[in-house]
Design brief:
11% strand; globular; 45% helix; Arc Repressor Mutant, subunit A; alpha+beta
Length: 122
Amino acid sequence: MARKLLENKDSCSMLHTINIIGTKWKPLILYLLANKSVRFGKLLFFMEGVSRKVLTDQLRELEEDGFILRQKFGEVPPRVEYSLTEKGKSFLPVLKQMCDWTIQWNPEISFMDCKIVLPLED
């Protein structure tokens, strides 16, 4: 299903943010790309339940929105890797805060450690 673009460019920034990253899979894609480049097959492996088509569509949208970079290597068999752009990296603190919030407000659940490693602030 194609993403609907917001017609009102002056709309609420929250609505715009949700329109960009507010799908089931996009935050997970950004999370998996947080610290390194990842190939399509590896993303598919770690994202249990996502179809190839949906993953492809989500990656294309993130690329169009400037969050990720798709790098194609001239090899046989073909190799494609995805990585975060500066814009994508700038969103990592938001994802980290979401992880921290979930842990704080759901103490009855034992979560794995968040794998997002943020750069140290000066």
